[in-house]
Amino acid sequence: MGGSWSNSRSVWVVRVREFCVQIDSEAYASLRRHGEEVYPEESCGVLVGRFRDGGCVVVSGVRCENTRRDSPRNRYAIDPKELVRIQREARAKGVEIVGFYHSHPDHPAEWSSTDLAEAHWIGCSYVITRVAGGVAAETRSFRMAGSWDEKRFVEEEVVVEGL
Ligand SMILES: [Zn+2]
């Protein structure tokens, strides 16, 4: 457990986890709603914002179509062309891709071996929401750490801005 002084509020902030993803409350509500809307299939999207010490700040989420038509209930994929377009649009606005989100219909908000195998953005946040019976339940986030040869997920704190 570590801690740090938050200059803006002059309070001692105890961080239980090493990393933290701060998500705009509207973006947070939207990504959870997305999971409910496409249930029982998996939703997926891109998180746009800024990196900072110890994590990132998400200012918006971009909804994507799940291109895994062979197994949309337990797999997700984002069209690489769409990803390039989102990256270009983000940069034009002075932000960048800081993470990804998807839902787990009727499964825990825990990363799967497939999630790890298919995650390639070291340093990015991978946000997972469990959708139970069509209703968004817990949302957790895992930061992709390590290197290309030895990547791993580290759970990080989710802070919703404005709540
Ligand atoms: Zn997953």
| Cα end-to-end separation | 24 Å
Q: Helicity, in percent?
A: 10-25%
What is the multimeric organization of the chains shown? single chain
Whole-angstrom Rg: 15 Å
Coarse structural class: alpha/beta
Low-confidence stretches are: none
Briefly, what CATH class? Alpha Beta
Count of distinct strands: 9
The major beta sheet can be summarized as: 7 strands, mixed, barrel
Beta content comes to: over 45%
Per DSSP, the total helix count is 3
Shape type: globular
Description:
- With about 160 residues, the protein is an alpha/beta fold.
- It has one domain (about 20-160): Cytidine Deaminase, domain 2 (3-Layer(aba) Sandwich), CATH 3.40.140.10.
- It has 3 helices and 9 strands, in the order βββαββαβαβββ.
- It has helices at about 25-40, 80-90, 115-120; strands at about 1-5, 10-15, 20-25, 45-50, 55-65, 95-105, 125-130, 135-145, 150-160.
- β4 and β5 (about 55-65) form a beta hairpin.
- It is globular, with a radius of gyration of 15 Å.
- The protein starts with a strand and ends with a strand.
- The structure holds zinc ion.
Give descriptors for this structure.
seven-stranded mixed beta barrel; binds zinc ion; 163 residues; two-stranded antiparallel sheet
Explain briefly what this protein structure is.
By secondary structure, this protein is of the alpha/beta class. It is built from three helices and nine strands; from the N terminus they run βββαββαβαβββ.
